[in-house]
Amino acid sequence: MFKVTIRELLLLTLVVGMGLGWGLDRSREFKRVKRQLEFWRNTAISFQAFMELDGNKVQVHQPRCISVTRKDGITIWQTGSTGRESAGFKATEAWPSSDELGGRDWNAN
After folding, report:
1. Phi then psi dihedrals of residue 77, to 5 deg
2. In terms of DSSP H, where are the helices of 3-109?
3. Any idea what the Cα angle at residue 48 is, between residues 54 and 91, rounded to 5°?
4. Buried b (16+ CB within 10 A) or exposed e, 59-85
5. Of the candidates 86, 87, 90, which has an alpha carbon nearest to the alpha carbon of residue 104?
6. Are residues 69 and 62 in contact, defined by beta-carbon separation less than 8 angstroms?
7. Distance separating alpha carbons of residues 109 and 16, to the nearest angstrom
8. What is the model's pLDDT at position 77?
9. pLDDT tens, per residue, the chain with 109 residues
10. How far apart are CA 88 and CA 78, in angstroms?
């Protein structure tokens, strides 16, 4: 006959408790991320609708590349795969420090 000691029962309880705790934590984290994703998706759709109501054209070229074009065909805003193009930096250029950004003339693009 198999003997079960109190130490083994405590160990089994610990392992099962840790597994359930981890599973619940992952489930909650997944739901939180899903809610955030839905929020930002709805925000992007609202932004696009707002821009198009003003007569602008919003295009999504890649998952992270967006351009906004006015009625007259002039692109007024565009991001690249890293978003650096909208700030006037090349994709291969290192992002400057905050000190360098503070003295930058943002209207000189």
Report:
1. -160, 135
2. 6-53, 98-102
3. 110
4. eeeeeeebbbbeeeeeeeeebbeeebb
5. 87
6. no
7. 60
8. 76
9. 778 899 999 999 999 999 999 999 999 999 999 999 889 888 888 888 888 888 888 887 766 677 888 888 888 877 765 556 556 666 666 666 666 666 656 555 4
10. 10
Block residue for tokens 């109501």:
53
* 77 token code pair: 């805003």
Q: What angle do CA 21, 23, 29 make, to 5 degrees?
A: 100
Q: What single-letter amino acid sits at 89?
A: F
Closest of 75, 74, 79 to residue 62, by C-alpha: 79
Encoding tokens for residue 33?
A: 């991320």
Domain boundaries, the chain: 1-53, 55-91
